[in-house]
Each structure stands twice: as C-alpha cells, then as structure tokens.
Amino acid sequence: MNLPRAALTRFGKPALWMAAVALLGAAAFWVGYQNRAITVEQFIPLVVGPPPSGLVVSSPMPNGVEIHLRGPRHAVETLVKSNPACRIDLVDAGEGTVPILLTGNHITLPPGITLAGIEPAVITLKLDRLIHKQVPVTVIFSGKPAAGYSVGEVGSTPTTILLSGPAQRLDSLEQIPTAAVDITGAKGTIQNPLTLDLPEGVTVAGPDKTVTGGIHIVETIASRKFTGMAVSGKNSPYQTRVSPAAIDIEVEGPINILDGLKPDKGIDIHVDLADLKPGVYVRRAVIGLPVKTTLISARPELFTVTLTTGKENTAGKKADQ
Fold first, then answer.
1. 95, 183, 210, 264 — which has fewest CB within 10 A?
2. pLDDT tens, 59-86?
3. In degrees, to the nearest 5, what angle opens at C-alpha 102 toward C-alphas 99 and 105?
C-alpha cells in the first residue's frame, strides 16, 4: 500500500532517526566491549635456540610455560590465536649451569598487551661439551623360541654406531641397546631393522643411521643315552650268534629328533656279515642314526660273531646265556 507523502513526512524521519541512534549505540557498545581490558591465561611452547658451537643442552627442558596476558580483549584474543611462543637465545651462554629469568622480552607482544605473569619465572639449563663416540650395538630380545629351539648367534650390522651428545652422558656409555625384538615361537633367523634405545639428548651422528639386527634361532642340541640295545647279524645265510648281544650308545643331536628315537624306532644296530664263511669273527657294530645326529660313544666296541651251518639260530643271544 502506498502511503501519502504527508504520512512519510510525519512518520518516516523520526523512525530513521531512532534507527540511526540505535545503530550508533550498538557500535559504541561493541567498540567498548572489544577494548575492555581482560586477563587471559595461556600455555605456550618454550623454544630454545641453538647453543654456541661445541656445546649442547644436556638438562631436561619444560615443554612450555604458562603466561598471563592483560590488554584489550580484541588484541589479546588475536595474540592467543597467533600461537605465540617463549623464545630463549643461548648465543652468549657458556658451559655449565645457566639460570634464565623469563620476562616479556622472551615473548613477542603487540602494543597494548602486557605480560602480567609467567610460570615458571626462572628455568635452569645445563650446557655440556658436545662430543662424538663410537659405541657397540647390543641387540635385545624378549620371549622364548619354539619348543626344541634356542637362541644362537646374535649380532647387528653395523656392529658399532657413531653417536653425538653431551659428554656427561657419552663418556660413561659403553654400549647402546636396541628396542627389544620379540622372538616368541620363532624357529629361524630373525633379521629386521632395529630402533636404538638412545639416551635423552644423544643422536646418531655417523653415516649409518639404520641398524639391522640378526637373531639366529637354532635347534637345541642335547645328548641322550640308550642302553641295552639289541645287536643282530645281517647279510649272512648262516646261523649266527653275536656276543655280547646288546650295546649301550650315547647320541647327540637336535632335541626334537632325540625325543622321537626309540630302541625299535630310528636306530639300526647290526653286525655286517656279508661274504663271511662259517667260523668265528670279531667285528664292530654298524650303528645307523637319523640325519643331524652324531654317535658320541658305544660300549662295547667289538663283538664276537659265530657263523654255523647248524639249524639253531642263536643270533641275538646274550653272552652269559
């Protein structure tokens, strides 16, 4: 609906004036709100610059400090969003203990913002000589290999590593361990890149940055005695008698193989009688063992064998019968 010009003259100007006053009031309130002084607590990182050549920081350092900022709300909030940091310059520091009083000079603050407080107010750093040292690598492992297996040779490539760090830490360091390698259930060689368990402040300085560890898992070797094993004659058409009729042996080999050996399984003991005519002979026993096993001893070593053309076969009888 179109209003007459008189109506616009009567109602339009006061309405516009009131709107303008309200807008100016809101703007003034907003400006006052943004410029109102506030105090904000903020945790900021601590950034320590490099020390003079030949020195290194050897003491632990806090991750950051807590600061209390005061100033106009807008300026403070803008500073907080810019991720400020507390920066320490060590260019003129010397070897030894260095106490540093933290002030607003360590934080870049825009005009209008003041540092109302900082915690901790003082930090103490220790600077030590930077040295290099060649240190042997020790491969660490945990767990147990599979049953019947044990840990054999353990080593690394390279066997030593060049480290860099504070003299106080490296002077007494005789070896550098690796992170533990899990060998649980292993049956063969484990060869993997390994992480070094470096002390704080110590780094790898040489060209070899990676260490490869080798852990050889081998079959567990043991020995076992078998007594009263029957001795027989073979490869003869004649009746045989072997005296004595039994032998005691000791065998060495992987424990998993030894566990499977029985007097009638896996071991063959006999006297070879091939091409022998009837008569009495002294012979050694032939002892057949599984692969990977070794005969350590056998008692007795010699056997008397009697070959006859008679009907009775006395092979295997004991000497005292």
1. 264
2. 888 889 999 988 888 888 888 888 889 9
3. 125
